[in-house]
């Protein structure tokens, strides 16, 4: 009994699934993103995402991603971890 088709199928399925693990995360526009989208950022949960939206409504749009550190509860380390995903378009 030949096992080549079974092994080939398993290798193909494994390569498809591992390919998704290396997909680039989406860029988040911090001036227009909703709470759910902001909560997808590393180190940002529901309450911090709500604080970002409240800060944005009170102070206007962010001029740079680094300004995100002005939001209470968000430090420069969190901004650094998410630097490649933050945009202000």
UniProtKB/TrEMBL annotation:
This is Competence protein ComEA. Pfam families: HHH_3. Residues 1-23 form the signal peptide. GO terms for cellular component: type II protein secretion system complex. Residues 36-55, 66-85 form the Helix-hairpin-helix DNA-binding motif class domain. GO terms for molecular function: DNA binding. Keywords: Signal. One of its GO terms (biological process) is protein secretion by the type II secretion system. It comes from Marinobacter profundi. The keyword Signal applies. The keyword 4Fe-4S does not apply.
């Amino acid at each position: 009994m030949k096992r080549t088709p079974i092994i080939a199928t398993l290798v193909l399925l494994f390569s498809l699934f591992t390919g998704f693990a290396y997909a680039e995360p989406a860029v988040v526009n911090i001036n227009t993103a909703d709470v759910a989208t902001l909560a997808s950022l590393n180190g940002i949960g529901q309450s911090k995402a709500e604080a970002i939206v409240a800060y944005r409504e009170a102070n206007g749009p962010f001029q740079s991603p680094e300004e995100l550190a002005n939001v209470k509860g968000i430090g420069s380390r969190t901004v650094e971890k998410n630097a490649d995903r933050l945009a202000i378009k």
